[in-house]
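Comment on the following before class.
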Amino acid sequence: MSVPSNREPVAVGRPVVPDGYGLPENNEGLLPWSHVEERMAAAKNYWIATANRDAKPSVTPVWGVWVAGRFYFDGAPSTRRGKNIQQNSQVSVHLESGDEVLILDGEATIFQQAPDRALAEQVAAVYTTKYAQFGYSPTADQWDQGGLFEFVPHKALAWTKFPDDMTRWMLG
């Protein structure tokens, strides 16, 4: 289930890479932002990369949902990722493929109490549509005491045919 985004890129172009990567010099063949939206909405598993305040990294696979240009995932704030996000909100999200790559960098926060009811209902509905077949159907009140994470991307990088369509988006 894809929900229209309310976050649009403010800049799109090629990433900055060292010489020798064979990156095209023009912007022909860039991927559209809809590529990011569709892949984030459709993926089953996501890798969440966090670091604590001392920059000790941790990577965790999670289930999650893409709603209105933001990524939501859940779990106890006492998990390693939860503790790290409380100390350092900078997070990267990566999909599983190393061939059709999608990496997002941004900030994550943990709802310490119930999110806005309309948001909780929307997130729960998208989770249910996506994961009920795997036995997970949260209700909107599941996060009333916290445990819902919100990731807001600031930058995205993707490619399906390296390096020909490498595309970087900067978000406002």
